[in-house]
Amino acid sequence: MADKKMLIFIPTYNERDNVTPLWQGLAALGLDADVLFIDDGSPDGTGEVLDALAAQNPRLTILHRAGKLGIGTAHQAGIAYAYDHDYELLVTMDADFTHSPENIPLIIQRLGDSDVAVGSRYLQNNSLAGWSIWRKFLTGLAHVLTTLLLNLKYDSTGAFRIYRLDRIPRELFSLMESKGYSFFFESLHVLNFNKFKIEEMPISLPPRVSGSSKMSYRDMFRSLEMLFMSFLKRIFMRSSLRLHPEPAVKECEAHK
pLDDT tens-digit profile of 62-84? Predict the structure, then answer.
C-alpha cells in the first residue's frame, strides 16, 4: 500500500486534552499520510488547539462545522473530503485513544486484497478491559443484533476502519441515511450487501484517556430504530441497498 495516497480522518467534539497527544502519536508513525480532523464547534476549545497544530504541520488539515451535527454526518464529510482530494486509502478512528495510533500500520497490512478492514473487539479475549459492565452489555447486545438482523459477522459498530476508496464507488455512500452512530453498522451493511470484501483485525479497546462518551440514550434509541429500518430494507426493499439496482422488468417483457 506504500504507493497509495492515504488520509487519516478523526472527528472531534470536546476532545481538547486528547488531540495534541493524538496528533503526536500519528506523526511519530512516520507514515506517508495526511491527517484530517473535523471539529463540530467544540465549546471546550478543541478547534482552536487543532488550528494551532495545523499552523505548524502542513500535512494536518482542520475543518470546522457549526455545531454538533452527528457522528455519522462527520464521517460522511470526511469520506467526501477524501474523494474530493483523490485519496485512495482512508483510515477512520476515534479521538479518545480507544483506538491506538500504533494499530494503523497493522490495519493497513491487514487490509491486503480486501476493500475494507475493520478493527474487531470480538476476536480476542478481554479486549474491553476496564470497561463497565453496562458498556460491555450494550456493546455485546449491538453485536448480537447486527449479526442476527443484518447478517453481519463483523464488529459493525466501531469506527476504526480502513477503506479502499480506489475500489469503492463514491455513490455507494449516498445509499446511507444515518446521521448518528448507526452510520457504522449501516455503512458496513451496505458494503457487505454489495459484496465488497471485508476483513477484520483484532483490537483491544481501553477506556478513553480523557473526557466522556458522547453517546446519549437518544443516540441509542435512534440507532435501534435505524437497525430495524435496515433490517426491513434488507427483507422488503433490497433495491434501495444496491449500488446498481437491477431493472424491474424489461420493456419487452412488460407487454407480454
Answer: 999 999 999 999 999 999 999 99
pTM: 0.89
The 10s digit of each residue's pLDDT in 19-43 is: 999 999 999 999 999 999 999 999 9
Q: What cell numbers appear for 239 in the block?
A: 433495491
CA distance 172 to 191: 8
Structural domain count of the chain: 1
Taking CA atoms, 88 is separated from 115, 116, 138, 231, 248, in Å, by 11, 12, 34, 31, 34
Q: Is residue 79 part of a domain?
A: yes
> Which cell goes with 168?
469503492
Give per-residue burial for 78-96: e unless 16+ CB within 10 Å, then b.
bbebbeeeebbbbbbbbbb
CATH of the domain at 146: 3.90.550.10
Give the dihedral of Cα atoms 93, 99, 100, 106; nearest 10 deg. -70
The greatest distance separating any two alpha carbons of the chain, rounded to the nearest whole angstrom, comes to 69
Residue 1 in domain: no
Helix axis angle, 46-56 relative to 16-28, nearest 10°? 30
